[in-house]
Amino acid sequence: MYSIILVEDDHIQRDILKKMLVSTYKFVKIYEADSESTALDIIEKNDINMFLIDVNLKESSGLDLAMKIRDILKYEFRPIIFLTTHMEYITQAFKQTHCYDYILKPYDKNKVYTMLNKLILNENNNLNKYKDEDEDKEIVITLKSGIYVGINIDDIFFIEVKDKNCEVNTINDIYITNNISLKKIMKLINCEYIIQSHRAFAVNRNYICKIEKLDAKLSTVYFNKYPKTALLGYKFKNKVISEFKKGKVIIC
Questions:
Q1: How far is residue 213's CA from residue 215's CA, in Å, rounded to a whole number?
Q2: Does position 196 have pLDDT exceeding 80, yes or no?
Q3: Domain Response regulatory spans what residues (predicted)?
Q4: pTM for this one?
Q5: In terms of domains, do 17 and 130 share one?
Q6: CB of 231 within 8 A of CB of 219?
Q7: Which of 46, 61, 127, 214 has the smallest C-beta neighbourhood within 10 Å, fewest atoms?
């Protein structure tokens, strides 16, 4: 799902723009923030496609927030659009943050839609295209027996390092690779939903159904409709749990 964060400390202005977005873009998830700290918390815990940021936040500058967003690797080139009543800040905004454009207040509905349509509709099409490509992506690995086998990445539950080999647990079977490291097979897979959970494990976040704490440093990862489990190490805990929660409603 395409996602937008709306950072505006004036709740009336924020509500006006949110209603415009919600009424037109049914497939878009809208996040709201009234401060830099709230915005950064949302941005770090979720995957944001577009940023609409008020230049004049009360507690901080929208330009400063944009600079912090640009320092996050995955957001280096994502579109930032500034909301402003003062044109004098825009030149500085373009130079410092490489923002895509700006929207003047009070909002002109037609101008807002003209600008956002270019970004949202095109980007949403690209997201669907990349999703389809990832779902069909296969890797070819050499088994310990010397046989070559093709594996659909989407079929992988988890990968476990055993001695100098990797055991790939999939929907269809368990495949033991011939003398390959976890680092190398992760590079070969190159998929955002296959994530490392332990020095000896990588898991498919899409199949995780439960994470259970074992002790201060280890947890057990359980998978939907699969009896075997993987380990989650302390070093990878925050990343894996964040990915597990992504897109879900968190009750407590």
A1: 6
A2: yes
A3: 3-120
A4: 0.51
A5: yes
A6: yes
A7: 214
Name the amino acid, one letter, at 228.
K
How many helices, marked H, and strands, marked E, lie in the chain? 7, 15
Residue 157 one-letter amino acid? F
- Asked if residue 126 and residue 52 are part of one domain, the reply reads yes
Distances (CA, A) of 22 to 25, 26, 78, 113: 6, 6, 21, 12
> Identity (one letter) of the amino acid at 43?
I
Together in a domain, 47 and 144: no
DSSP 109-172: HHHHHHHHHHHHHHHHHHHHHHHHHHHT-EEEEEBTTS-EEEEEGGGEEEEEEETTEEEEEESS
Mean pLDDT of 191-211: 94
Among candidate residues 51, 71, 55, the one with its CA nearest the CA of residue 63: 55
Interatomic CA distance for residues 226 and 170, integer angstroms: 9
Could you tell me the two tokens for 14? 């924020």
Residue-range definition of the domain harbouring residue 155: 138-245
CB 204 within 8 A of CB 194: yes
